[in-house]
Design brief:
The chain is mainly alpha-helical. The chain is built from seven helices and no strands.
């Protein structure tokens, strides 16, 4: 299955469930513990999403949708948190950015000097190989 379905509602449903869970937590948990629980939830969501993404294949449309969903999740969690959560989505943003390359030739132009959250070059090549339209031989030849 490819992540290229146009109207996949999972992100909206997930955000709604997180909002409901957080509303319940706010009623029964003290603020310091609430912040810890929210941070743990964000970490688990990011890790699980990254694990899931690494088991899929993507085309450019699926990559664009993934990037949009990651931005929406980041924004939703930021709205719940009193501190910045952007850094928690760093690895996922790197994954989505790599998957959103139009062509492999764009790699150096788009990512020259980038500070990666991913292991470089091993994870970068693995993520690029998730794009079904990128040739594995060409991925190996990219100068990383």
């Amino acid at each position: 299955m490819f992540f290229s379905q146009v109207n996949d509602p999972w992100c909206n449903a997930f955000i709604n469930m997180v909002n409901q869970l957080y509303a319940h937590w706010r009623r029964v948990i003290a603020p310091p513990s609430l912040a810890v629980m929210l941070n743990n939830l964000i970490d688990r969501v990011c890790n699980r999403l990254e694990e899931t993404v690494k088991q899929k294949e993507f085309n450019i449309l699926g990559a664009a949708m993934l990037h949009q969903d990651i931005l929406r999740l980041s924004s939703a969690f930021q709205g719940l948190s009193e501190t910045s959560v952007r850094h928690k989505f760093g690895r996922l943003n790197d994954v989505a950015s790599l998957l959103n390359l139009q062509t492999l030739n764009d790699f150096h132009a788009d990512f020259a000097g980038k500070a990666w959250k991913l292991s470089y070059p091993t994870e970068v090549r693995k993520i690029l190989s998730l794009r079904k339209d990128f040739d594995l031989g060409s991925i190996q030849q990219i100068g990383l």
